[in-house]
Write a structure and sequence with these properties.
By secondary structure, this protein is mainly alpha-helical. The chain is built from 7 helices and no strands. Helix content is 82%, strand content 0%. Helix 2 crosses helix 4 and helix 2 packs antiparallel against helix 7.
Amino acid sequence: MIKFYRQIRLKLMNENKTSKYFKYAIGEIVLVVIGILIALQINNWNENRKTKVEAEIFVAKIINDLAIDTLNINKLIKRSNESDNEISKFFNYYDSLTPNKKNIDLLLDSIKKVSAYYMKYFPVNHTYKNMENSKNGDLLKIDQRDALISLVAEQEELNIIIDNSLNNAIDERKLSKHYLGFSDDFYEKINIKNSTSRKTQTLLHSTLYLKALSKLYYYIELRGVQIKKSSKSAIELLQN
């Protein structure tokens, strides 16, 4: 094609048709510019298409993460409710007793039967965090990104609350074991009765331990429900 245009230019110059030559040269320049613009447009279209495909992949993965996180929260809330019910049974029994020193042994025996566990929340948000760290966050729309930023903040707040409640529970558990760290069999074997004072301290810190766990379960459900709502809203934005 270039050879063809060159032949036309040479022919016009040889025939001394200067005006026609300049008109042709201008036309050729226009064609070249148009060709460049078309090439740039095609390149931009390809880049936009690649960006759109990449964004769709990220969005699909983020939605999957949010769905898994919601399922995990549901399981966590369910386990929290089960453990909290166990704690409630103990405190109902505690409230039913009339004041009496003999209640110490009854309550210590009852508290041993409570099935309550430490619980942690591990947010499933690695796709979005990796996206932000790799500076691909711009692939999302502003409202989508804002929703995810807010959601991650809620998840981190819940983890802070859980850590504080767990630390309180662990501290109280350590204190209860400090005062009465051995089983009754140990004291019976050496024919020594454990002091009422130590039993009282053990019971005190054991109940504070259960209250700290109950607080933990309360916030897991309260904040967990809010995170699920935020996740649902984020999914709706991502799907639009």
